[in-house]
Amino acid sequence: MKKIRVAVFGAGSLGSVLGAILAKRNDVLLITRGEHYRAIKENGLRVEGFTEGLFNIPVAEHYPGGYDIIILAVKAYQTEEAIREIKMEYKDEILITFQNGVGIVDMLKDFDVIPGVTTHGAMLISPGIVKHAGYGDTFIGEKSGELTERVFEIAKNFTESGLKTEVVNDIMERRWVKAAVNAVINPLTAIFSIKNGEIWNDDNLRSIAKCMSEELSLFLQKKGINEDVYSLVQDVVLKTRDNESSMLQDIKRGRKTEADYIIKPFSNSKCMYILYKMIKYLEKG
Ligand code: KPL
């Protein structure tokens, strides 16, 4: 299999896990900052859970240019900043975004983008140590829906590296659906400070998730997307039951959340509006 040079821009918890998996067969560079950067540089990246090991992967604070693929894994609200930095070195790299949220692919209009979706769960344990806490599903596809040779080649490489990846012809719809699934799981887990699986263990939370999912399925239906959000939520919470959602991790660390990209797009429904405002309140705390 041909090696690919992959730069993971935004190697936090999920980006680090993806980088570690892909490094089994490819030349990977992790781009991250602060203590996580220093710890990986000094001691390597330790991954626990579904992927295990100590990975000696090169790490940088800035994108140096010269890669085949850039995997964009920064928080949705850091996308503009990432775009500015990548543009300084950009030639014709393929950008694959696995970021959560609505509107990201449009923001990347100046690049050669292959949108993606992943439901893997990841947590930062401490700087330099991440947990692969849920083995989910990964999809990539051309924006146009065309089934090109290059997407199949990339999916084959990722799959052979250990990141099972499927090629789809409806990736833009799937990104909306993933955002809807996040719009249920992330606020509930962040508000109640619980792991993803707890949503399914408790009758009360399951009922709330059902009510939210029904509204989100109706929302998607109006966009021509027919999906049973509730059964997708069930699938993701069960696969990532031991994971803390990215929104819960953000709230715990006192960081901004991705609520504006995950919940706000659906907040014309009363139920989603209330949850959006609850998260915005928690963000202030
Ligand atoms: O995408 C996620 C997130 O936490 O943002 C899931 C798949 C729900 C895993 O926790």
UniProtKB/TrEMBL annotation:
Catalytic activity, reaction form: (R)-pantoate + NADP(+) = 2-dehydropantoate + NADPH + H(+); (R)-pantoate + NAD(+) = 2-dehydropantoate + NADH + H(+)
Top enzyme class: oxidoreductase
Pathway per the UniProt entry: Cofactor biosynthesis; coenzyme A biosynthesis
Residues of the Ketopantoate reductase C-terminal domain: 170-264
GO molecular function terms listed in the Swiss-Prot or TrEMBL record: 2-dehydropantoate 2-reductase activity; NADP binding
GO CC term, one of those recorded: cytoplasm
Domain of life the protein comes from: Archaea
InterPro entries noted in UniProt: 6-PGluconate_DH-like_C_sf, 6PGD_dom2, ApbA, Ketopantoate_reductase, KPA_reductase, KPR_N, NAD(P)-bd_dom_sf
Family: Belongs to the ketopantoate reductase family.
Descriptive protein name: 2-dehydropantoate 2-reductase
